[in-house]
Amino acid sequence: MTPAIVTRMRERPEGRVARITLAQSGPLNVLGLGLMEDLAAALRDLAGDEALRAVVLAGEGARAFIGGADLAELAEADRAMAQDFAVRLQGVCQAIRTLPVPVIARLQGWTIGAGLELACACDLRIAASGALFAMPELRMGLPCVTGAALLPGLIGWGRTRRLLLTGEPIDAATALAWGLVEEVVEEAELERALERLVGEILAGAPGAVRRQKALMRQWEDLLPAERAAPGLAAFAACWDGPEPRQRLRAVLAGAQDAAARVRTSR
After folding, report:
1. Which CDD domains does the record cross-reference, listed alphabetically (predicted)?
2. Beta 4-12 vs 15-23: how paired, if at all?
3. Based on the domain organization, do 9 and 83 belong to the same domain?
4. What's the CA gap between 88 and 31, in Å, rounded?
5. Over the stretch 7-24, which tens digit does the pLDDT of each residue have?
6. What does DSSP assign to residue 51?
7. Annotated active-site positions, please?
8. What is the structure's pLDDT at 263?
9. Is the same domain home to 21 and 145?
10. Tens digits of per-residue pLDDT, 145-185?
């Protein structure tokens, strides 16, 4: 199978949005070494784009976001190749997590194994109502590693154990109830809902959104008692640029205009 990464840029009035589509020439999009290398390169290119506001990560077609790892590759792997696969997967997950702007996973059809790990690395996940999720690695003699370590922070330890130890798939409604995804919509509404979500992100001040993502990643790696200090530093750093003053003055001006209209109407 030939790896394929398609990155499309869309210029909106509020800023630039990138869409990365993952594709493989098989019935399901599967994650192999070549596809991970291409995805890592695409993420590196985007990381330096100062005009970028958000990224959408999607799978080609309706059958899968990512249908797991490339089993044909892994079936022929030796220890070194298997370790290389895991290291590359971890690297891609980390590249998503450290990308300066929010990454939204667009989930349709199956999201399995390594695909679910990539989805967990994203900042937000929106799914079609027919989407299905599974971590079946144990049934293939493999432990769940790398991005699977993000699951407890999303769904808790008990549900993580159930997902990993049983390998049973869950549907989109269960994923929403567990906190694995943030929104579920009918398949026909997926693009429209995705546009709304991107629009809400773009409504934030660009610098503040980037700081907030970086700060939340710090929070994840710190104990609760340690989380205040980075937040205080990030808050103070906002005032090095014009964004807070400009936004606050606009809000105040709008409130004053609204109050004046109320007084006039009486």
Report:
1. crotonase-like
2. antiparallel
3. yes
4. 11
5. 889 888 888 999 999 987
6. T
7. 117, 137
8. 66
9. yes
10. 888 999 999 999 999 999 999 999 999 999 999 999 999 99
List, as one string, the DSSP characters of 86-125. Answer: HHHHHHHHHHHHHSSS-EEEEE-SEEETHHHHHHHHSSEE
Tell me the per-residue pLDDT of 49-85, one tens digit each, with 9 for 90 and over.
999 999 999 999 889 999 988 888 888 888 888 888 8
111, 194: one domain: yes
Amino acid, single-letter form, for residue 8? R
- Whichever domain contains 156, its CATH number is 3.90.226.10
Note whether 182 and 126 are within 8 A (CB).
yes
The domain in which residue 258 lies consists of 206-265
pTM: 0.87
Token couple for 252: 């105040």
DSSP secondary structure of 116-151: HHHHHHSSEEEEETT-EEE--GGGGT----GGGGGH
Q: Are residues 39 and 83 in the same domain?
A: yes
What does the mean pLDDT of the chain come to? 89
pLDDT of residue 109: 96
The candidate with the shortest Cα–Cα distance to 58, out of 113, 112, 134, 119, is 119
Q: Do 103 and 9 sit in the same domain of this protein?
A: yes
Helix segments in the chain, DSSP class H: 33-47, 71-75, 79-98, 114-121, 151-155, 157-166, 172-178, 190-202, 206-220, 228-238, 243-265
Residues 51 and 179 reside in one and the same domain: yes
Position 39, amino acid:
L
Structure tokens at 41: 């390169």
Structural domains in the chain (count): 2
Tell me whether strands 103-107 and 124-128 are parallel, antiparallel or unpaired. parallel
Give the 3-state secondary structure of residue 26.
Answer: coil
d(CA 67, CA 69) in angstroms, rounded, equals 7
Residue 165 sits in the same domain as residue 224: no
